[in-house]
């Protein structure tokens, strides 16, 4: 039988899971060597004004914006899942669009042009 200490440890909310979108985003930026906000928002093709609203929590990120950040940071599938969840989204296995995104991440296809080609080949709108 599992001890109480082990049970509590296993079920305690992980700090990373409890972080909000912006806090987790900054942790990922630090992990992947993005020292300045502009390094990331330029690479993700996000305007400075929109970025400022995201960081100041004046605006919730769209799915497309969150995915652009995912690909710019070259996140793992797990990191992508957490960041999307914090933004209020998920990549459901029942969605072909989501499976193309997950396929791209799992196969380290981080070039947004290539990801957009895959999406458009299957009748989906490109991430802009």
Describe the structure.
The protein contains nine helices and no strands. It is mainly alpha-helical. Helix 6 packs antiparallel against helix 7 (about 75-85). It has helices at about 5-10, 15-20, 20-30, 35-45, 50-55, 65-75, 75-85, 95-105, 110-120. The longest helix has 11 residues, at about 20-30.
What pattern of helices and strands is seen along the backbone? HHHHHHHHH
What percent of the residues sit in helical stretches (DSSP H or I)?
55-70%
DSSP strand count: 0
On the 0 to 100 scale, the average pLDDT is 91
- Tell me the strand percentage band: under 5%
Extract low-pLDDT stretches: none
Rg, alpha carbons: 16 Å
How many DSSP helices? 9
Query: How would you describe the shape?
Result: globular
Distance between the termini: 52 Å
Structural class, judged by helices and strands? mainly alpha
Largest sheet: none
Number of domains: 1
